[in-house]
Specification:
Strand content of chain A: 25-35%
Order of helices and strands of chain B: HHEHEHEHEHHHHHHHHH
Number of helices of chain A: 10
Number of domains of chain B: 2
CATH architecture of the largest domain in chain A: 3-Layer(aba) Sandwich
Shape of chain A: elongated
Largest sheet of chain A: 6 strands, mixed
Radius of gyration of chain A: 23 Å
Shape of chain B: elongated
Structural class of chain A: alpha/beta
Distance between the termini of chain A: 32 Å
CATH topology of the largest domain in chain A: Rossmann fold
Structural class of chain B: mainly alpha
Oligomer: heterodimer
CATH class of the largest domain in chain A: Alpha Beta
């Protein structure tokens, strides 16, 4: 059962010049299954927010069609608004109203009451309760995010849209937040979440990699990494930058990126040996000891790989 | 209906919590009404003049006396030459030069005719115009006195003379606050009532809260109405405050009824809130809204007939005032307060304002629906 069906969605933004039309979304198609946590992974400006706006009926697409929970995003927008919870990327609750007032307000806006739906948000709300008389603007980042989630859930939505919910939130709160999403999943809520953090991708059931308005790949995190299809090496030395330059100059190197402490490198020859790499480095005069390991690819590696195709 | 009540409760909570803004909203009109009507007056007093008396005769002395005795002119300096007097205009110590030529008295008696030079500093055009016409009327008066003394009664036919008496209708003492207060009150009402609503909606856009509202089933019309009502009420409170001040501070007792004023003010507020709303639908942030609002407000005030009479404006400007809601309200306020016009008398203006209200609000709602 598909909760969200997106077919060939286009969205243009007015460009500075007439020649090039800015494509925010370039023919996107995907589906999200009932009860799934679907992650949209992509850098800033990839089109994640535009896509969310179209699916939450805030924006009209320039082409294609989409349904949420069986309702068309254009024709049945009223039905959709009753059924979806949306948490924008920026904290958008009333900062001058208290925690309690915000909750009450959004509950009434959705024609329901806080009491009726307390069971769904109970787990999150108990953490907020000590601050219920505090104005939303005075809450800490993590608390704001919890309140926003509560407000998005207050009408028992069947689909939850979370636009970069963990951006700017500390690691502990991020971890808690994902636990909350998992427990919501157990209650049958379909979640579509966008994030620029690759490490969060592994927590999703399926992910779509979005870049410049196009989907580069959609699959489960496991399949995506399994389909990487070539050996990946991680290299480390004392002098990382010269190492990077040497490896990029190597005629056997296919891709070479700096990934924190290591350089991740793939080679044209799939059967390349560590000895080959070492002898190349010796040959070009890079004499200091180099740590070379073959590693399993992560989501980020897949993302970079897909970018190159 | 229930949702509207909740939205209204939210608006009032927010407005009441913004203490600073609340204070300004009510204090600004009060302070301005206490200061502006006293300051903004057209009555010219203390026009300082520089006299170049080359005659030093009894007539020239009499003429100068007449000027200083009028109450409008203040003798700033006696200058030896015109050039000296001009210097005092240049360093801005006098507004007017009167030069009485040599042999003024003799020429006047012998030839029955003499010249006097009046020069006014026209950097302030209104002041120059008024002071030279005051001067002209004083000289005309002087002229009349001389004729009477020079002509021997009975010898010749008395010169035919038209004497003018006048009275100021509806404001017999030419009390300027009576004239200014209604106009200033209208401006303040427009400022606070109209633009606060616009800025309020734009701030929801800016903070992103409107996005959160837009995904709820709350109808846009309901949302807009919830923005209009609080500021409409605030506008009416300010209007009441203003009327209290004009009654108890300036002792302006409307000749017409307060009822007529209120009915008109209510319709006017709806029209002006519509304009604010329209501005808010076209702007993305408070800066833009503020700038557009001021652009309109300044034009509206200058073309409202509050400071310069509409009838003396060029034809094209008079046509423009027809599109200015402020001009109708200023006119009606004065008609009702000073002239005692009844509601029936101002019905045309009332219907025009209602027309503004319908057009502006419909336009705003339609545009709001289109943009988001």
């Amino acid at each position: 059962m598909e909760t969200i069906i997106v077919e060939n969605i286009y969205k243009y933004y007015p460009a500075a010049t007439k020649k090039e039309r800015n494509k925010a979304l370039n023919g996107i198609s995907f589906t999200v299954k009932n009860g799934e946590i679907f992650g949209l992974i992509g850098p800033d400006g990839a089109g994640k927010t535009s896509l969310f706006h179209i699916l939450t009926t805030l924006l009209l697409a320039d082409g294609g069609r989409a349904t949420v929970d069986g309702f068309d995003v254009v024709k049945d927008y009223k039905q959709i608004r009753k059924r979806v919870g949306y948490m924008p990327g920026r904290f958008s609750l009333y900062q001058d109203l208290t925690v309690e007032e915000n909750l009450q307000f959004f509950a009434t806006a959705f024609e329901t009451t806080v009491e009726k739906n307390l069971d769904l948000i109970h787990e999150i709300y108990i953490q907020l309760e000590p601050f219920k008389k505090r104005r939303a603007g005075k809450l800490s980042g993590g608390m704001k995010q919890k309140l926003a989630l509560c407000c998005a859930l207050i009408h028992k939505p069947s689909v939850l849209f979370l636009d970069e919910p963990t951006t700017g939130v500390d690691p502990v709160s991020r971890k808690e937040f994902w636990q909350m999403l998992k427990s919501l999943q157990l209650q049958g809520i379909t979640t579509i979440v966008s994030t620029p953090y690759m490490d969060e991708a592994n927590l999703c059931d399926r992910i779509g990699l979005l870049q410049n308005g196009s989907l580069l790949g959609i699959d489960t995190p496991e399949n995506l990494t399994r389909n990487f299809g070539k050996p990946l090496f991680a290299l480390k030395a004392e002098q990382m930058y010269p190492l990077l330059l040497h490896m990029r100059a190597y005629d056997q190197t296919a891709t070479c990126y700096g990934f924190g402490d290591y350089h991740h490198i793939t080679f044209i020859d799939p059967h390349i040996q560590q000895a080959d790499i070492r002898s190349y480095l010796q040959g070009v005069g890079f004499t200091e000891p180099v740590e070379i390991r073959q590693i399993a690819p992560g989501i980020e590696d897949c993302f970079m790989d897909l970018l190159n195709h | 209906m229930h949702i509207l009540l909740v939205l209204l409760k939210k608006e009032f909570t927010q407005i009441l919590r913004n203490r600073f803004l609340l204070l300004i909203m009510f204090q600004m009109p009060v302070i301005q009404l206490l200061i502006l009507p006293l300051a903004a007056t057209y009555e010219m007093k203390n026009i300082s003049m520089s006299v170049v008396d080359k005659d030093h005769s009894s007539y020239s002395a009499k003429l100068i006396d007449k000027f200083t005795a009028s109450g409008y002119f203040k003798l700033n300096s006696y200058a030896d030459s015109y050039e000296k007097a001009l210097e005092s205009i240049e360093d801005n110590t006098s507004d007017l030069i009167i030069e009485i030529p040599e042999n003024f008295e003799r020429t006047l008696i012998r030839e029955k005719k003499a010249d006097i030079l009046i020069n006014a500093n026209a950097i302030d055009g209104t002041k120059a115009g008024l002071s030279s016409s005051y001067a002209a009327s004083i000289i005309a008066d002087f002229n009349k006195d001389i004729r009477e003394t020079l002509l021997q009664p009975g010898k010749l036919n008395p010169a035919p003379r038209i004497s003018i008496t006048y009275s100021n209708w509806f404001n017999p003492t030419l009390h300027y606050p009576t004239y200014m207060v209604p106009g200033i009150l209208v401006t303040l009402l427009s400022l606070v009532g109209g633009f606060m609503a616009a800025l309020n909606i734009v701030s929801e856009k800016e903070k992103g809260t409107i996005e959160q509202i837009n995904v709820t089933p709350v109808k846009k019309t309901t949302f807009i109405v919830s923005k209009i009502i609080p500021f409409w009420i605030i506008g009416m409170i300010i209007f009441t405050l203003g009327l209290l001040i004009s009654r108890f501070v300036y002792h302006i007792y409307p000749v017409g009824t307060y009822g007529t004023l209120y009915i008109f003010a209510m319709a006017y507020m709806i029209a002006f809130l519509g304009l604010g709303l329209l501005i808010s639908t076209y702007s993305d942030n408070q800066q833009q809204a503020m700038f557009i609002a001021f652009f309109f407000l300044i034009i509206f005030i200058l073309l409202s007939g509050e400071f310069t009479p509409i009838t003396s404006m060029p034809d094209w400007a008079q046509k423009m005032t027809k599109l200015n809601p402020l001009s109708y309200f200023v006119e009606v306020m004065r008609l009702v307060m000073l002239k005692g016009s009844s509601f029936r008398d101002v019905l045309t203006q009332f219907l025009t304002i209602c027309g503004f209200g319908v057009v502006l609000n419909t336009w705003a709602v339609l545009n709001y629906k289109k943009t988001s």
